[in-house]
Every structure is written in C-alpha cells, then in structure tokens.
Specification:
The complex is a heterodimer of chains A (425) and B (164). Chain A is α/β, with parallel strands linked by helices and 425 residues long. Chain A has 13 helices and 18 strands. Chain A folds into two domains: 265 residues, Aconitase, domain 3 (2-Layer Sandwich); 149 residues, Aconitase, domain 3 (2-Layer Sandwich). The longest helix of chain A has 17 residues. Chain B has one domain: Aconitase, domain 4, CATH 3.20.19.10. Chain B is α/β, with parallel strands linked by helices and 164 residues long. Chain B has a seven-stranded mixed beta sheet. Chain B starts with a strand and ends with a helix. Classes of the chains: A alpha/beta (425), B alpha/beta (164). At the A-B interface, helix 2, helix 3 and helix 5 of A face helix 4, helix 5 and helix 8 of B.
Chain lengths: 425, 164
Amino acid sequence: MGMTMTQKILAAHAGRASVEAGDYIEADLDVVLGNDITTPSAIREYRGMGASRVYDPHKVVLIPDHFAPNKDIQAAAQCAEVRSFVKEQEISNYYEVGRMGIEHVLLPEQGLVTAGDVIIGADSHTCTYGALGAFSTGVGSTDMAAGMARGKAWFRVPPAIRFELTGKPGPMVGGKDIILSIIGKIGVEGAQYKSMEFTGPGIANLSMDDRFTIANMAIEAGAKNGIFPVDDVTKAYVEAHPCVNPDMKKEFRAFEADPDACYEQTIEIDLSEIDLTVAFPHLPENTHPVGEAKGIAVDQVVIGSCTNGRIEDMEAAAKILKGRRVAPSVRLIVIPGTQQVYLECIKQGWAQIFVEAGGVFSTPTCGPCLGGHTGVLGDGEVALSTTNRNFVGRMGHPGSKIYLAGPAVAAATAVVGTIADPREL
Amino acid sequence: MGKAFVYGDHVDTDGIIPARHLLTSDPDRLAEHCMEDLDAEFVGRVEAGDVIVAGRNFGCGSSREHAPVAIKASGIRCVIATSFARIFYRNSFNIGLPILECPEAVAGISSGDAVHVDFQTGVIENETTGKTFQARPFPPFLLQMVDSGGLTNYVKQALEQEGK
C-alpha cells in the first residue's frame, strides 16, 4: 500500500522500507527544540534518565522566547537554567536575547530545519516546519528530554487527511484566512492525531510565509502535523536561507506521497472562495467572514507571533497603516518574529509607519500571545490578534475576549477601532 | 476512589494551567493553580483520589507538560474523557498520569458522584448510581511504557543497554 508524504519521511527515519497508519515506531531526530518554559522541565527529566551528554550538541536547539527578554525574576531564573545547560552540554544552537527570535520564525530563517527532516519541539507550534516538507511535531518536556538523550522519539504513524487546494487567494487574503477557514470547516479536533497533507495546484499560489502560517495552526485542528510538498518555492526559500551552523550538516531531501497513498478523506478547497476570516472567542473554529465581525469594538490589536510575525505579515500591516493613525481607543502592539524581520521593518520604513501610526514596535518575543507580558489583557478587555489561540484567559484575564485574524484585518481594525475590512478603508 | 469533577468539551491547557503560572516547573506549586480559570473552586475542593470527567478533546492547546503535571500533583487519580488532544495524551503517558477514554462513562457520571476505576481491567464504576462502564483498552506499546515506569525510566533502561 502506498504511503503519504509523512509516512515516507517517518519510514526513512525509522530505517524501514514502509510503515502504515497505526504502527508504533522509533524515529531518528534531526532537530530537538525547546524554549525557556519547556526546557527547564526537560533538563530535570534528562537528569532523571541518567543521561550525561546530548546525542548531538549540534542538533539540539534552545531558544528563550516566551518570557524573554526576562519578564521578571522567575523568568530570569528559567532562562538562566537553559543558558547554563547550553554551556554544560556545549550546545551550538542557542540564540541569546538580541539574536533570538520567536522559535518557529527563527529556525527556518536560520536554515536549522529543512525538507525531509524529522523534528520534535517542546512547543505545540513546532508543526510549522511542515511548510518546508519536513515531519515536525510538538511534544512535551519528557519527550524533549528523551530526544536530547537518545536522538529518537516514539511515534504512532498517523493517518492523513488530504487538502486539495485549487485556485488563487483574493486580494489581502493570506495563509491565516486559509487555515482559519479550514479549521472552521473541520473543527478544532477535525484532524485529531492525523496528518494534514496539503496538495494541489493552488499551492503554487502560496508564498512560504503563507505556508508557514497554515502549517503552524495544524495543531489548532488537533493534527499531529501539517505538511506541504516540496516545490520551486520551497527550494528558492531554502537556497535563500542556508543553514548558519555547518556542524548541523543539513541535507535537503524532498519526499513525495505515493500515487496510491491512502488518505482517510480528501477535502477540496478553492482558495479563490476564501474570504478574510475572523475566529470569534473562545475557539479557533468559531470562524466568520470579516463582514460578520465588522463593528465589534476592540481595546487592543496584536500583530506578530509564530503564526504571523514574518516579513510578509509586517508588510501587509504596514501597507494598511501607512499614513493612518491608530484609533484613540486602541492599543496597537506590533512584534516582528526575529531580529532579521525587525531589521527588515527598519530598512523598509515599516517600523516608522508603525510608530507614526501610534503603535508599539517591540523586540521579538512570544509575550502577549500566551498572556505572558507586553500586552496582557485585563478583565472585560477585547483583543483582535494575529496569534493562534483564543481560549478563555489565553492572553490574560479569563474575563477577556480574543478574536483571531490575519495582519491586514488586524491593521485595519487598529485604525477603525472596531473589527474592520481592510478592503474598505 | 473519589468524587468526580465534571467538565465539558475542549478543556484547553490554558484552562488547566494558565501561562502566567509557568514560571516554575515545581509540581506542587503548579497544583496550587490547577484549573483556576475554568473552576475557581477546584483547588479548594479536590482531594487525593478524585477524578476528572470531561468531554471531547481534553487538553487541547499548548504542549506544556505542566498541565498533566498540575493535575497529577493536585491529587487527581485519573482523567476520564470522551477523547484527548494528542500532545496531552502523550504527555500523560510520559509522566504517569492515568487517562481513560470512555464516552459512556462521561455520559453516565455527574459532578460529585463517587467513582472507582480498576486500571487493570479498565472498568469504571459510578458508585453513586451503581452503573459500570468499560474504558477503551490502551495499545500494548503504551502499556509497556507504563509498565516500565514511564518514558524517563524507559529511556534510562535504553541508555544503559546502549552503553551511553
């Protein structure tokens, strides 16, 4: 029986000719990732395993991005614990504040992940790298510890849903609108334990930034991973972002699904029919076309995160905000995903646009997305955010509300003060 | 065994342990804030041996292992749900929090009911109503891992065998 793209990557990393959905395997890991929240627990389990050296100091990637720059004394202690482990284990992929970025924006940009890799990360949005044609999934700290110790992880081989994309997205419609509308269609457990494999001619019309955003939110449909085929867009991206760490010895490997691969379901998506989309509180599946959200007043707009903190997101926001002012009742917080994205904002004049519009322009951090810092919501406050989750209390007080959307809707909303359609400005 | 705390579908990891409390990985300190945004009374009422009963997609959201760790440290003996989100499912096995999938039990247990679980057989008994339910069996691979004392011990043994 034919294999899906995910199954082929897993088989190759498990030293097997083939695998089937439901098989339990141990796969070799190309990258093991952790952040400042999940790594301290992983270090404790790593010690408990009796491990002394990580399996490969060049394949472990540790990034303090959630509560960094240190938001308080406890955050400082957690980051210090990570830093000290990096020194002890001579881990070569560590990005200090000032060089770091939000992990899932940073790793592809630095070339630390590539097509054909198997990657685990103690962060649920690790599924982002499926955009490059890798198998990449989020795990907990104990799995991360096991990965650091042995370079292996156990997986139950997932079945897959195929999303056959056709057509071209309309003006201002981007990856966020596409993935939100898919989650709206299948629900937050619509792909539970499964792969979301994106195929079809419509993919050629999606930039890498669109694909990263789509794969990033596969977890929001319950998926184990989201994955895109490797094409010219992927190849051009990887060539433009060579690995900064030659010791990682990255190997670009394009896997293709077999023609007779078995899919549980095929869902056809015509990209030209997708509207600008907003997810209402308190689940990402509560999606509506932006027209149905118009007029809802917001206190805060956040543009950034591992979902929408990339160059195209900043550009989309800047185009809307140019020559305009943030509404007096709104606090706009713009957070580029990495130092390179930040620098691009300066070079292109977007940073000036954000500041002149009356917005905050912050150093890279996960910050407000998880209610950490730099924009925590108070009781009764409403935010429209380009982040990935709108659960109760996600960005702060449990009495606050979050609407999710892409950067163009976010920027328009900041200007109008109520949720707005950027095409009507 | 203990009394049931009953919740609905899609209980997410922010509801189980909000990120503002992720400044520690100490289980007892995490347990002080378990479920606080979802059920402010939980921490004051939970006793060792109690169970959580919930609907679909329990534990959706973040990869934070702090979520099952907080539940376990709060005294909860096991979580019974219609279904679990995949990272939470995996984390629970890895850290040794027993979880059971049983839609019939979820439908047949009310808040405060006395519940007893036999982990060997997967039989869940609602002692208040006298009804029993059979949970879905776990795959052999996961049972082996539980038998070896969770992932940490499993890896410890593997490292010893590999001479590392």
